[in-house]
Known about the structure:
The chain is of the alpha+beta class. It folds into three domains: about 10-55, CATH 2.40.50.100; about 65-135, CATH 2.40.50.140; about 140-220, 2-Layer Sandwich (Ribosomal Protein S8, Chain: A, domain 1), CATH 3.30.1370. The protein has five helices and 16 strands. The protein is flat, with a radius of gyration of 23 Å.
Amino acid sequence: MLLIEDKQIVVPGEILAEGDYHSGRGTFKDVDKVCSSLVGLVAVRDKKISVIPLQSKYIPKRGDVVIGKISDIRFSMWELDINSPYSGILPAAEVFGKEKRELNRAFDVGDVLFLRVVDVDEVKKVKLGLKGRGLGKFRGGILIHITPTKVPRLIGKKGSMINMIKDQTRCEVVVGQNGVVWVKGKPEMERVVQKVVKTIEEEAHTSGLTDRIRDMLLEILGEGKEKTEDVKKEEDEFKEELIQ
Length: 244
């Protein structure tokens, strides 16, 4: 007997079903009972019950800006992975209006978009849109995934943290409220941003983080500058030897 509903929020130890049900990810079996092992959303697939952890996934809210990757193209819409238990849907009408066009000519599977959550209905169907400043398709760059609850710490008060990262690395950085970060710049600087973002995620709960990140950036970028100057010195010495 199923004791909960699909997509219901449950807590550790809560009994989800009894009898002929199978234990999936995020659950455990206690005799003939399937129980939750964490706080999360129930996913029922036939006779298998899983629980998707809330702390690592994004719960969509109307008005949020998110970064999503197209996972499927249907007759009149694109489906996107938005780092959530729920897929996002971008209707063709949001892009073409009433015009009829082939969807993959605009966006294809694997494309990464910056979008706004237009609506979330009672069954968590997430409608996305592209109307707004800066929204659209990203070209190039890398994606970094962090816990969505750490996004405010990454941005900082009045954008202080993220602006410091942009200024020091000269990278374009866009942060989605779903915990997906897009970075584009020189490859070595993209790696620096990735390292810094992951450090912020790990140490978000600590005090004095902004100062530590500033010092970290100065140390990394200072080493990079010294290495560049050493290489240039070696090249100059090699040229002098050739001339002699």
